[in-house]
Amino acid sequence: MSGADNSALLTDLYELTMAQAYFRDQRMGMATFSLFIRSYPPNRGYFVSAGLQDVLDFLRDLAFDAAALDYLAAQKLFSEDFLHYLSALRFTGSVWGIPEGRIFFQDEPIVEITAPIIEAQIVETFVINQIHLQSLIATKAARYVHAAGGRPLVDFALRRAHGTDAGMKVARASYLAGFVATSNVLAGSRYGIPIAGTMAHSFVASFEKEIDAFRAYVASFPNSSILLIDTYDTIAGAHNAVQIAKEMAIRGQKLIGVRIDSGDLAAQARAVRKVFDDANLTELKIIGSGGLDEFDLAQQLEANVPFDSYGIGTKMGMSADAPWSDMSYKLVEYERRPILKLSPGKASWPGKKQVFRFRDGEGKFARDAIGLRDEKLTGEFLLKEYMRDGQLSGRCPSLSECRSTFVADFAALPASVKAIRNPVRYPVEFSAELNNLREQTVKNI
């Protein structure tokens, strides 16, 4: 058997080779690892926390089944006694994390895991994999939401996402960060996200006449139809949509709107709006799509382009302008001994930590401080305990609750920090106690 379905194998080989070396050396003490992002990608001034739920589910269920152990044995790398140890391995540690939907910043610990060092080490790959993708996408989606200025956004990213798992997580992360729906039907079913969609050019092209395609579609969906009008000529398509809307009105039905997916979107939206307004169909909606990024949305908002909503796909689904971040998972404490890394450009801070947030008199974010876990600073504590002794500490928030958390945090984030170009750097400082611990740890090294 291959062990192909055992998620415990979703790790880098060196996590397991290090684990055997720890085991052979009887290095089984408690370790704390901290996950954080070292620097901002271009035009980023904040991040949105996402992916913690998947990490907690993974840790709760962590186990090497017989097929996985057989696969590892076949690699001729691991000793029989170590594989026997893995057969009984379960996650027994604690997890502190920034709740999903909260805004966080450079250098702030997103997740801290404390467990026997083998347990904490072998989960590194999965933790980074899940938090990195989902926080990156949630941050990108938040930028779209900000740029859209209140216009609803629907996730269209599944078909060009980097695999099915990424497509699912994009739908979840974008909804968490303010999108209103997804075209991904499985994500709608699994996560409870509203689903939305229109039609493709292939449907229109399968009919000899565009208007016949429209008539066939609205016959199936008399109360929820949105027509794609740019297969041949967008303005002609708009006039056909007017005809369909009038026919539907006679039957007591209502056309919702149209979608434009190609060409000069701004010019076409204005021309289509005029066609509809001249026909006294001011309630017909115009949806824009077709490779849009947040800069496009901001430009169209500033120019009063009459799109009512957008379908957002490729560039959001892979965070096209910033497809990776410098996320790192570093050992910060072992057997109560503070640990740091001094490598140039990759230095870390020792000890278990907490992030303290301070607000101004209007409730807006003013500054953050990264301190030690047991410090008594007066700010709001961002890191919450989610697991203790390998068990969930309490109920995890639902996706809708995480979405509400994001809405509240984003409203409190200064506009200058969430600007989509050249954002102002939000102030994050390190507490005096953490600075002192770092200085002492460096001296000890």
3D structure, described in words:
By secondary structure, the protein is of the alpha/beta class. It folds into 2 domains: 7-137 and 323-444, nicotinate phosphoribosyltransferase; 148-317, TIM Barrel (Alpha-Beta Barrel), CATH 3.20.20.70. It is built from 16 helices and 19 strands. The strands form 4 sheets. Strands 13-12-1-5-3-17-18 form a 7-stranded antiparallel sheet. The chain has a 6-stranded parallel sheet with strand order 7-6-11-10-9-8. A 4-stranded mixed sheet has the order 16-14-15-19. A hairpin with a 2-residue loop joins β17 and β18 (391-392). It is elongated and about 80 Å long.
SSE arrangement:
Elements: H1 13-24, E1 30-37, E2 47-48, H2 52-61, H3 66-74, H4 80-87, E3 94-97, E4 103-104, E5 111-116, H5 117-122, H6 124-148, E6 153-155, H7 164-176, E7 181-182, H8 185-191, H9 201-205, H10 210-220, E8 226-228, H11 234-250, E9 257-260, H12 265-278, E10 285-288, H13 294-302, E11 309-312, H14 314-317, E12 327-334, E13 337-338, E14 353-359, E15 365-372, E16 380-381, E17 384-388, E18 391-392, H15 399-412, E19 428-430, H16 432-444
Parallel strand pairs: 6-7, 6-11, 8-9, 9-10, 10-11, 15-19
Antiparallel strand pairs: 1-5, 1-12, 2-4, 3-5, 3-17, 12-13, 14-15, 14-16, 17-18
Helix pairs in contact: 2-6, 3-4, 6-7, 6-13, 7-8, 10-11, 11-12
